[in-house]
Description:
Layout: E1 5-10, H1 14-27, E2 31-37, H2 40-49, E3 54-58, E4 60-61, E5 64-65, H3 66-70, E6 79-84, H4 90-95, E7 98-103, H5 108-127, E8 135-139, E9 144-148, E10 152-158, E11 161-166, E12 171-174, H6 178-186, E13 190-194, E14 197-200, E15 204-208, E16 214-217, E17 222-224, H7 227-236
Parallel strand pairs: 1-2, 1-3, 3-6, 6-7
Antiparallel strand pairs: 4-5, 8-9, 10-11, 10-14, 11-12, 13-14, 15-16, 16-17
Amino acid sequence: MKTKIQTSIIDDEQDGRDYISLLLKNEFPDIQIAFQASNIEEAYIHLSKNTPDIIFLDIQLSDGTAFDLLSKFKEINALIIFITAFEQFAIQAIKNGAVDYLLKPIKRIDFLIAVNKALEIIKKDKTSSGTYQNKISLPTLQGFKLTDIEDIIRCEADSSYTTFYMKDKTKMIVSKTLHDYEGFLSEHNFFRIHHKHLINLTHLKEYIKGKGGQVIMADDSVIDVSVRKKNDFLSKIRYFE
């Protein structure tokens, strides 16, 4: 039985693995480095048999990309912190469930924020009942419906009502305000880009530049980003003009 939080470091550069190891040793001595790998083959063999709590995963590896590695698994029950020198991978990293996204050279403060974010998620999971932690209860006329959070593409406010747009192209209108759901869903990779719109960043396809800009979601809906929310939104996905 695991007693310590375990992490795996997957980076094709020895200097990169050494630097992350040093930061963990100095800042998070209770986290155990269980494994290190420099390529997809080594990482695949390890992850097929082991499930670390946190994975530091470089996007560019010697024999492919991090996304090639992840595509070999139906699901990896680990929190992933992506690392790369290339900003353009930000949206793809988020779509693959990134806890955070670190740019090389890694800054100590960014590293601390990313790891603490992962630790907070682990803490919440351990104190949660577990069965419903990835679901949300939506009221219906007959009672309520338990819905998988990952199936929600976006939420739209309409006065005292909220419309949930689903991955299967259905929608559900509930008699609660968007504000009632914002706090909870924000902990599950949702971001309020406009006073009327809360989006699931996992289903974000594209950002179009503009005064505030627009996003294109997985259901091909085009939604305005408010000017006031633009900088926070771009910072959230680690994308800079």
